[in-house]
Structures are given as structure tokens and as C-alpha cells.
């Protein structure tokens, strides 16, 4: 279950960025997750709830946009989604069995679908404001 370790890294990055900007609360986190990462959105959401508990990210809205695969065939030059012929999980270190839709070649370059990005976050910063009133100068009053 690599969702937990992935989400741990995401939350740590978000908390660090929020802290650098003086945030009191993280309101929303927007992620882009490629389908070929095999990260399960429901498991990511569960991991987020557990990991963010007790932090300024607790209760933040987590939005996950799934990114479909896009490949370029190195044999015929076709650009498209490719055909994945493997299980619904992946073992790290092994090449993904994706072939070109046009010519069937397994020699493809991945353009999209393997990303795991924090697109942006929304934070709330409580600003302490102290107004210092200038004393009125009686000579300048009308």
C-alpha cells in the first residue's frame, strides 16, 4: 500500500509550504495523480485523514484529479493513450506493459499518466492588525 507513504510525503510538503507562508489553516489541497501510478484515490483520501489529524491540514478539502495516460510511440510517432496490458497494480522497477494503439510497439515514451503532483493549496492566514492612530493636531483641525 504505497498510498500511505505517498500521502505522508504530500502532507509533509503541504505543511512545510503552509508554515513558510505563515498559514494558520490549510483549506484545500489539489492533486494531479496519473492513472499509471496505480494510486487509489479512496486510499489516498483515507491516508490523508489519518496523517493530517492534529495538524493545520486536518479537515482540509482534498481534491484529486486523475490524469489519463498519454504516450508517444518511438517506432511510428503516434501520440495517444496507449494500451495497458497489465494488472491493476505495478511492481516498482519493472517496465509498464503499455503498447502503441496504432502499431502495437512496446517502445513508448510516457508523456502523461505517471505524475503525482501537488497542483496548489489554499491556506488561511490570520493577520494580527494593530492600527496606530495618529494624534490629531489641533492646529490643523478645521
Can you describe what's shown?
This protein is α+β, with helices and mostly antiparallel strands and 142 residues long. The protein has one domain: hypothetical protein PF0899 fold (2-Layer Sandwich). It contains two helices and eight strands; from the N terminus they run αβαβββββββ. The protein has helices at 2-20, 41-52; strands spanning 25-34, 61-67, 70-73, 79-80, 83-84, 98-99, 108-112, 116-124. The strands form three sheets. A three-stranded mixed β-sheet has the order 2-1-8. A three-stranded antiparallel β-sheet has the order 4-3-7, with no helix packed on it. A two-stranded antiparallel ribbon has the order 5-6. Helix 1 (2-20) crosses helix 2 (41-52). The termini are far apart. 20% of the residues are buried.
Précis, in short:
With about 140 residues, the chain is of the alpha+beta class. It has two helices and eight strands, in the order H-E-H-E-E-E-E-E-E-E.
Task: Give keywords.
alpha+beta, hypothetical protein PF0899 fold, three-stranded antiparallel sheet, 142 residues, three-stranded mixed sheet
Topology of this protein?
Layout: H1 2-20, E1 25-34, H2 41-52, E2 61-67, E3 70-73, E4 79-80, E5 83-84, E6 98-99, E7 108-112, E8 116-124
Parallel strand pairs: 1-2
Antiparallel strand pairs: 1-8, 3-4, 3-7, 5-6
Helix pairs in contact: 1-2
Amino acid at each position: 500500500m504505497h498510498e500511505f507513504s505517498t500521502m505522508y510525503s504530500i502532507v509533509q510538503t503541504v505543511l512545510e509550504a503552509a508554515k513558510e507562508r505563515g498559514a494558520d489553516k490549510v483549506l484545500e489541497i489539489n492533486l494531479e495523480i496519473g492513472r499509471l501510478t496505480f494510486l487509489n484515490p479512496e486510499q489516498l483520501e483515507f491516508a490523508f485523514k489519518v496523517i493530517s489529524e492534529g495538524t493545520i491540514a486536518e479537515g482540509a478539502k482534498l481534491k484529486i484529479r486523475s490524469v489519463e495516460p498519454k504516450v508517444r510511440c518511438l517506432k511510428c510517432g503516434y501520440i495517444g493513450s496507449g494500451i495497458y496490458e497489465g494488472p491493476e497494480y505495478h511492481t516498482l522497477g519493472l517496465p509498464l506493459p503499455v503498447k502503441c494503439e496504432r502499431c502495437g510497439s512496446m517502445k513508448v515514451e510516457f508523456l502523461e499518466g505517471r505524475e503525482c503532483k501537488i497542483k496548489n493549496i489554499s491556506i488561511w492566514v490570520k493577520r494580527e492588525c494593530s492600527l496606530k492612530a495618529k494624534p490629531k493636531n489641533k492646529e490643523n483641525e478645521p
